[in-house]
Amino acid sequence: MSLRDIARKIGMQPPSLYSYFDSKNAIYDAMYVQGCRQFVDGEPWDELTGEPLHDLRRLVEYFVRFCAAHPARYQLLFQRTIPGFEPSPESFAISQASLERVGHQLNRCGITDRRAIDLFSALGTGLADQQISNDPGGDRWIRLIDGAVEMFFDYMTKTTTPETPARGRRRR
Amino acid sequence: MSLRDIARKIGMQPPSLYSYFDSKNAIYDAMYVQGCRQFVDGEPWDELTGEPLHDLRRLVEYFVRFCAAHPARYQLLFQRTIPGFEPSPESFAISQASLERVGHQLNRCGITDRRAIDLFSALGTGLADQQISNDPGGDRWIRLIDGAVEMFFDYMTKTTTPETPARGRRRR
DNA sequence: GTCTATATTCTGATAGAC
DNA sequence: GTCTATCAGAATATAGAC
To answer: What are φ and ψ of residue A31, in 5° steps?
Structure first.
């Protein structure tokens, strides 16, 4: 989508956009902020129960469904595949804060391994990525979320605190 | 990169490319095939030992390192993010065959769950994706491969064949 | 604030000579 | 097979009138 297309969609002439944005990348940055806000505003924090497996599933499910529902935003926010664009520091800070909240939630679930957040994010991104690339509009990888999170939780609660009694674990 | 850039790089004039390819997408398709071949040719099948955890780690490590070393190919082959392009059926079949070999390898490792290949691919893609997006040139997610594969293997050998005695499992 | 008009550069692609 | 010449259109961006 070009500036022409944007302008036409909102009933403007292309040059008029420059009254609002300095450049095309400035528009991308605004969209980045908007996308972050939209993602953060929908985060299901108030739907968490304190039951680790349930809560982590909710987080991953929210992320994957968001990405699958808005693949262009997924590309803009999480893939960094738009040629000349990278978000401004202020904009990037918003998504950083969101990631940190996920880290804190992992801690609250008894997962303190320092690599946990990286592995967790890789798992979520992988599910979203495959869902978008190989089954757009479907739910083939969305249906794997519960199992994937269980896999992650089992592994993390075993290797980091092997002496801790299993909490809230379920099979299937 | 435009057709002009390609032509200049190989010391040709842009129109001469059309003696070899019908369109820009035809070039993409040839690159897709070339990328598939390159990936397949380097697959470490002859380095597998029969020890499930080792072999699966080798496969994932090869995939992630390939993607991290060739991010443009990663985008072309596995991300499908190039605007007007999708591979021709003949080209796509090559990558399909590669994925099927991974599925057979999972079977050989005693993993027969039908969702295993999807979860495995999501895990590999997620690691590659995060590595490229958030630590290009580094190894932050590459270092997670061993743990991630162990997590996957443990989960798959437990949930699908819970009565099977653990084979080749190691901690850390 | 929004417009018309336009600059400049790049894009993929074609015609036709050699 | 490769070239020169060129097309038709799209891209981002600017100047200046209303």
So the answer is: -65, -35
